[in-house]
Give the backbone structure.
Amino acid sequence: MTKKFEDIINEQGQLVYTNVGDSMYPLIKPRDLLVIKKVTAPLKKNDIPLYKRDSGQYVLHRIVKIKNGEYYICGDNRAFIERGITDRHIIGVLTDIVREGRTIPVNSPEFKSYVKLLPLRRSIIRIKNKGGLLIKHLKP
């Protein structure tokens, strides 16, 4: 029987697993190792929690806003902001990315520089998505 992510974190204090999606690209690339640890302090904007949707799906996305105890969360490679995520959904928080044997802590200067560019990246993704919708409507 495969253990649930939340059980592993509760038993071992952390979870290390291989990324399979592209929703956090280019920060997190396919086959990167992700280190998720128990949440030990209140989450804040730009933290990247691992959470479990009510459907049972595990997701690792960035907090873009916190309002009234609700997290607004979005993948770095997505335009849609998910709402309705609360502390009961949160399993852990990303602390490190391991790529090709090199560990990149989320509090590193490299990581912080990337975060500063996120508003521009999100704007480009939204424009790209709207342009794609416009083209679909214009095709005969």
